[in-house]
Amino acid sequence: MVRDDEVVGELPDESHDIRVGWVLTPVGGLRALGIGS
Predict the structure, then answer these.
(1) How far is CA 4 from CA 13, 34, in A?
(2) Which residues, other chains included, contact 17 with Cβ-Cβ below 8 Å and sequence gap of 6+?
(3) Under a CB-based contact definition with an 8 Å cutoff, are residues 21 and 31 in contact?
């Protein structure tokens, strides 16, 4: 599993939010996509 600090250093904030949401739950991933759009 990728650490949050490593993800932040490599990906934009939106991509980070989407990845974190997806890790938590598929529904969370969809919600993160909606927020990031």
Answers:
(1) 11, 20
(2) 32, 35, 36
(3) yes
